Amino acid sequence: MSDGLPEGFFAQIGYLLQNYGTNYLKGAGITIVIAVICTAIGCVIGLGCGIVQTIPVEKRDGMGKKVLLGAARAVLRVYVEVFRGTPMILQAVLIFYGAAFLFGWNLDMWTAALVIVSVNTGAYMAESVRGGILSIPVGQTEGAKAIGLTHVQTMTSIILPQALRNIMPQIGNNLIINIKDTSVLFIIGVAELFSIHKGVVGATYAYFPSAVIEMAIYLVMTLVCSAILRWVEKRMDGESSYALVKQTGGLNAPPYVEHGKPRTGNLDL
To answer: Do 31 and 193 touch, CB atoms closer than 8 A?
Structure first.
């Protein structure tokens, strides 16, 4: 046991908070910043991958489009399967050390950390976006084509807004996962929360009390982020009340709007 570390569990908790509390908070700050930034970048990567994977191929399309799209989908499939099928800690080792060994790219640990977590998140989000797009009834796409919208207009104006709402829980889930999985970045020297815990344990040998403090901090971060994400989802759902419009005095008359309660009877149009 380290000199100066008191006896008793709660006494040791107090000692660690008093002497290393600032370090824990700095580690938590780095963890949450990396998680939020990389989740946002991963969503953009996943959005691009999901859109490419759902681009329709029709018989009248040229051979060039079919070959190019097929090759792109094959590359994306390999990317998704590799990064979803291997541990992030090994991905961190391969990207950070492999970039220097194979290509001579000496990435600093912060750049490597952002790349590692973002690319990993993008692989998971690619499948979420693809599923979100496919969850929209095909009749909406057919209706958009019927009124003359292009595929790009259909996606940006009709499909993606609904798909993004559908996958909001998965985006939140990935954020929570990233908050916890940044702990693997200690392998490349990033001073995130788990790395701080290792440093405190090395200095005090108070492994269990430090682990309890670390777990509590992770729990607070995930609970706060979950609450914020639920609020965002609720805001995206819009108001739960409705407005019933009754038009009187002809089509040019201003509408009569009643909020919050149903009206019975026929509407005068």
So the answer is: yes
The candidate with the shortest Cα–Cα distance to 168, out of 109, 237, 120, is: 237
For the chain, domain boundaries: 9-238, 241-269
Within 8 A by CB and 6+ apart from 72, the residues are: 52
Residue 95: both structure tokens together: 């990207």
Token pair for 126: 């690619």
Asked whether the beta carbons of 158 and 140 are under 8 A apart, the reply is: yes
Q: What pLDDT digit, counting tens, does each position of 87-128 carry?
A: 999 999 999 999 888 888 888 889 999 999 999 999 999 988
Q: What is the pTM of this model?
A: 0.80
Q: Which two tokens stand for residue 169?
A: 């829980």
CATH node for 9-238: 1.10.3720.10
Q: What angle do CA 233, 236, 139 make, to 5 degrees?
A: 110
